[in-house]
Design goal:
mainly alpha, 489 residues, two-stranded antiparallel ribbon, single chain
Length: 489
């Protein structure tokens, strides 16, 4: 049987992930990625030097910034629309996905592109892993062998987890349902599907390898205290990004003990201020007069971010009046509801500084591109606040005081220190506060609120006209892969 997944991965890997490499080294990436004996020599040449591994990773990160991935559809667009954080124009391009219509042509095409491009990046991670496992470690300088190997394993686990969050049931829904194909080799062999629970174990296995290797990375070991955020290695999948992803994955699986363990690795780093590098946005930044000086994406708190170089055309279209019917924006009423303005919480930085007038309407300015800004093009994929919310959820029953303390820490750093949560909240009340934080913190950020609903198997998505269930929470595997690969979910 033809492996349609492999063929798609191969083609996209050529056109997307390794375009950078083509310009640097090869006259034909297609020849390089072809697994024929003739081209295998080129692959060996490429990985015969340390720089080849770095370039391979650069190709993957570049592919993640495309509009098919986090540059739009996996970022502020398609996947985030599923969260219903925006008020979508009924005549705009997002109207079908806003109603969870996955069979409409544009929805089908977007879903297929996400699937195809994610597996292309996984394929390129597998190429790196195969070669670095066979490499002479002496060719690498410093800790680069460990860092490159850790990034590749980490990205493979992270991307499979992203696919699981989209294309498979959450364990709380049905742990015995089919997971996505977990691809660990670049080959023409068909990769079968395991159960959701089994597939999540594979995700964790890769992330644990990455966690061990990335203990060597510079964000974890070097003294960056006081250095500007752009100098930090948060533009790659680093140790703390891995720890937060492990916390996410374990919580997805319902393993609160391990979720708390890895969330605390991030929290302890922030609280102890070891070597700097990751820290809360400073209140003085929020007092800047000029909007271009405001760090509205809170970049100092990013654990893993992507640099999206054409962001001016994307962010300033979908988040400003230029977007017209396609704009991505919560209405004034929705925004005030999300940020509990009627409760007196209007000074929350995320509300007070995060919205700005553009013409006759107010728009979310969190990701605006502004001339002269030091924060342009930086899109967060993993934040340090993830760890605080995860830890609070893990502790709500066993140590409610600490759970509330963690949530209050976030609130204090969002300018809500005058409104601390009561120490007497019940576990259910703590969970509700966590839910409200997801609504506030992650607007515009890759469907994190949707994934929260899904993980909880929630019976309602606020603002949605459709009652959620498997048909909402599980995106269909592209039809070609169902037909030729035999995949189903």
């Amino acid at each position: 049987m033809t492996n349609i997944l492999f063929n798609k991965v191969k083609n996209v890997a050529v056109t997307a992930c390794l375009l950078f490499l083509a310009s640097c080294f090869f006259t034909s990436c297609e020849d390089w990625l072809d697994v024929s004996p003739k081209s295998q020599i080129k692959e060996e040449d490429h990985f015969s030097r340390e720089g080849g591994y770095k370039d391979q990773l650069t190709g993957i990160y570049t592919a993640l910034t495309t509009q098919e991935m986090y540059g739009l559809n996996m970022g502020i667009g398609f996947v985030e629309v599923l969260s219903h954080s925006y008020d979508i124009d009924p005549n705009g391009k997002w109207r079908f996905v806003n109603n969870y219509d996955y069979t409409e042509q544009s929805s089908e095409e977007t879903i297929a592109a996400i699937w195809k491009n994610a597996y292309a990046c996984i394929a390129n991670a597998n190429i790196l892993i195969k070669n670095i496992e066979q490499a002479d470690q002496s060719m690498f300088t410093g800790n680069n062998y460990h860092e490159y190997r850790g990034e590749a394993y980490g990205l493979r686990g992270f991307l499979h987890f992203e696919l699981m969050r989209l294309f498979a049931c959450a364990p709380s829904m049905d742990g015995n349902a089919k997971g996505v194909p977990y691809v660990t080799e670049y080959s023409t062999n068909i990769v079968g599907q395991k159960s959701v629970n089994e597939t999540m174990q594979l995700v964790v296995k890769d992330l644990l390898v990455a966690h061990e290797e990335l203990a060597y990375d510079t964000l974890n070991t070097y003294d960056y205290y006081g250095s500007p955020a752009y100098r930090l290695p948060r533009n790659c999948f680093n140790f703390f990004a891995c720890a937060a992803t492990l916390a996410r994955a374990y919580l997805w699986m319902g393993d609160t003990q391990n979720a708390l363990k890895y969330a605390n690795e991030v929290i302890n780093r922030v609280e102890n201020n070891q070597n700097g590098g990751i820290y809360w946005v400073h209140y003085t930044n929020m007092q800047q007069t000029n909007r271009y000086e405001l760090d509205m994406a809170f970049t100092t708190e990013h654990l893993f971010q992507l640099i999206i170089n054409d962001w001016e055309d994307i962010g300033n279209y979908y988040f400003k009046k230029e977007g017209g019917a396609n704009v991505l924006n919560p209405s004034d009423a929705s925004t005030q509801n999300i940020f509990e303005v009627d409760m007196g919480f209007g000074n929350d930085y995320r509300y007070l500084k995060g919205y700005e007038q553009d013409g006759e309407k107010r728009y979310m300015a969190k990701f605006w591109y502004m001339e002269g800004s030091s924060y342009n093009n930086l899109y967060p994929v993993i934040r340090m606040t993830d760890a605080y919310y995860i830890a609070a959820e893990c502790l709500k029953n066993s140590n409610s005081k600490r759970a509330i303390e963690l949530l209050n820490t976030v609130r204090e750093n969002r300018n809500l220190s005058l409104f601390p949560l009561s120490e007497n909240l019940t576990a259910d009340q703590i969970q509700n506060e966590i839910f409200k934080e997801y609504r506030k913190e992650y607007i515009g950020e890759h469907g994190e609120l949707f994934f929260y609903y899904k993980r909880m198997n929630a019976a309602e998505i606020k603002g949605a006209a459709v009652r959620p269930g498997k048909g909402v929470y599980v995106l269909p595997i592209p039809s070609n892969d169902q037909e030729f690969g035999g995949y189903s979910n």
